[in-house]
Amino acid sequence: MSLGFKLIYHKEAIEFLSKQEKYVQDRIALGLKGLLQIPPRGDIKTMKGYNGLYRLRIGTFRILFEINHVEKLIYILTMDFPGGVYK
């Protein structure tokens, strides 16, 4: 069941995703669709010290995102490997 939310990708996230192989893009896309479920599916954690920032882990990839409940938008801010995403 979908919450009616929409995914919005930041330029940095799009650039990272476009550099990945097709099977990696598909795996990440499937993981991101889990954010639209009730309840959201995936390895999701809140980021300590950052109000409203969340982390989704998909295999070795980390995706940082914010949720705007009023506008029903999920902003995909960045995605990278663990060493690069937290910089």
Structural write-up:
It is a single chain. This protein has 87 residues and is an alpha+beta fold. The protein has a 5-stranded mixed sheet with strand order 1-5-4-3-2. It has helices at 11-18, 22-33, 82-85; strands spanning 6-9, 43-46, 53-58, 61-68, 73-80. The chain has a domain at 21-80: YaeB-like fold, CATH 3.30.2310.20. The radius of gyration is 12 Å and the shape is globular. Keywords: Toxin-antitoxin system.
Cα separation of the termini: 34 Å
Sheet of most strands: 5 strands, mixed
Our estimate of the beta-strand percent is 25-35%
Overall geometry comes to globular
Our Rg estimate from Cα atoms comes to: 12 Å
Q: What's the CATH architecture name of the domain at 21-80? A: 2-Layer Sandwich
Number of strands: 5
pLDDT averaged residue by residue: 89
- Give me the side-by-side strand order of the main sheet: 1-5-4-3-2
> At the third CATH level, what is the topology name of the domain at 21-80?
YaeB-like fold
CATH superfamily of the domain at 21-80: RelE-like
How many helical elements? 3
Helix content: 25-40%
CATH first level of the domain at 21-80:
Alpha Beta
InterPro entries: RelE/ParE_toxin, RelE/ParE_toxin_dom_sf, TA_system_RelE_toxin
Keywords: Toxin-antitoxin system
Organism: Heliobacterium mobile (Heliobacillus mobilis)
Protein name: Type II toxin-antitoxin system RelE/ParE family toxin
